[in-house]
Amino acid sequence: MKKNILNYITFLVVSFVSISLVSCGGDDDIGNDNLIQILQSNKWINRDSSYGEGSNNHSWVDIETWILYFTSDHSGISYWIQKDYDTDLGNTTTKDYSLFEYTVSGNEVTLTYEDSYILTVYYQGGYLTTESMGTIFEPSQMTSNDYEFVMSLGPQTSTSGGITYTYDSRTYELKITGNGAMQNYSSGNQPWKDYYIKKVTVEEGVTTIGDNAFYNMIQIEEIDLPNSLQKIGKQAFAKTTISEVYIPSNVEEICEAAFADCSYLKKVQFDYDSQQNAKLKTIGDFAFNGCKINKYMIFPNQLETVGMMAFTGTFTNISIGKNIKSIGMGAFTSSATEGALWINRGNPPTATSNVTGKDGRWSLHIPVGCRANYATKEPWKNFKVIYESENLDNNEGAGGTGQRDASSGRTFTETVNGVSFKMIGVTGGTFEMGSPDSELSESRKDERPQHRVTVSSFSIGETEVTQELWKAVMGSNPSYQKTGDKHPVETVTWYDCQEFIRKLNSLTGKNYRLPTEAEWEFAARGGTKSKGYKYAGSNTINEVGWYYGNNKLKHVEVAKKKSNELGLYDMTGNVSEWVNDYWDNDYYSVSPQNNPIGPTTGHQYVMRGGDVFDEAKNCRNASRTCTKPSDSSASIGLRLGL
Q: pTM of whole model > 0.70?
């Protein structure tokens, strides 16, 4: 074999020498049109080779062939093939191609490639050469086979039902262009079914993805949809391997099983920037069934119908707007053990049983004043907790008042099953929320930046909810330390607190709730009577709170320390207190000024005040911490808001 390789090298050298001996003098300026005709009627070939020898009779030859095809008056294809002959490793062949645009000026031909690389060659003596003649392209007359070969190299373009599609075998991308709707297909008769497609790009102008357009094309990993799109047909992308999809704001309908059995699909994102203008009205049966969606889902306000078994995954938060009318059975089937469904509508939408697949483990969040509309109706009454949330507006004008409780902002005493507790009215005002510069060494990033916040008037519990009040409402005491009726209740999850509040509201006819984080800090700082203390009522923690330094690990009967400026006890220490807000480490950077209610979604809720397990710095008015809503411990309790 070594002898054969040497013979081939000798042949190549002689060939190259013979080419280099051709006269290259003169400009050969034959006119642009004539040169273009010559370029197109030939393929232009450059060959190069390298040879090497190693020990034990090891030798190799690398032969590179570079061919230029001028396929039109301004474009062409550069084709490259490398053949490696190796006595030890065997023979291999590598191929590739790239598109270029070209211009002609005199005998100068300038090629501009897709990656912006520029090659300039000159027509001299019947050859194309680089300026220093370092590279020479030899002409060879184009044959019918050459033309067919070139056609197979470039992007394949065709039409189907008024829509043009182009497939690029280098990038495995299919582009759909045109104006109007794609036609519907049956499985297996799509015109691109024989292509190996990894990405589908639908260009602006296309309004409908046809039924079964890409059904069962499992190699498709990515799709890009245009703003002009209005409808995604039945099984359009079913059984592909996409991992996320962005739904533009003009889409009105996602049809039955459109993305069904996309087992890698974890993220479905609607056009959040156009929520008010988004046009999505219908999501069909099984639209995203068989997917593994693991993010929260916020649906556009215009959504009216969600079909049966439309979504599957591990999501834990769903937010639906005011126009929702119908939700199918198991529409949001999640394998998560618990979650939260937010519906910004006073009257409940029509729904069949088991909306989430585990309604008894999920909380339902509805606008203030609308509980009675949901609490007696299937399937809504089966949710673990129905919580009236001020995060929601009830602005669709149906059901409930959507107003705060009439007692909000007043000081009064409430009695439930023989147990009394006091609510303190807090006049609204403006304050600086978060850690000041003077507490920089004690604070954490999530307490900054300090920012101006305005809250409306509200009421807040004079003390933490006691064990006796919890028993009066719930009939049992979950506390780990059952040390006295006047001690704060603890070992309660955020969900437990919602159930307690639900039952308390049914007993009192009021709309008690957890305070927002902003309300809690405003009250802890003394509201409009604030004297700027570090802790709730003092700069000395021992005057106002129980913490690890003075009563480690054991909570104390409420109201045994000094109160703050508003007459509130134990805002510093004793037990940490759940509030209504989701936690986000960076929320203070984006928080609105007026009545902030925290992030719209999250996985953890905020706790405030610190406890007997904490050191002093974690009991400051500005200190904040968080945990999952299903967590509980002997250090976590609550305080009521209204």
A: no
